[in-house]
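Hi there. Long-time user, first ticket. I'm pasting a complex I've been working with (about 98 residues overall). I'd like to know whether the download I got is complete or cut off, because the file seemed smaller than I expected. Thanks.
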Amino acid sequence: MRLLLCLLLLVQTTNKTELRQRIADLKVKAFEMQMQIELLERELKDVEEAEAQQPPPVAAPAKAAVKARCAGHTKDGQRCSRNAEAGSRYCWQHKPRR
Ligand SMILES: [Zn+2]
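Hi, the file is complete. Here it is re-exported in full:
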């Protein structure tokens, strides 16, 4: 009976050491994850700052194209005063036909 108690105590001690080891391991992992999170957050901030400094170059010309005037001319040689259709250089009337 005494041997069993000793054995039980030994098992408990091993468990305790094991648990401490596991906790220590998890703490290391948690620390590494925290570092990774901070690194990624810094990276994200850099990307966001870069985006804020230079807006995507596609946006400006696309907006300009929508508002652009028709490149066609009227019968009397005047520049067409209509707005060009979206994605085209001409209005509905001067749109090249195929
Ligand atoms: Zn036109």
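A couple of notes from our side: Residues 24 and 30 are 10 Å apart (CA to CA). The pocket of zinc ion is lined by residues 70, 72, 80, 82, 90-91, 93-94 (CB under 6 Å).
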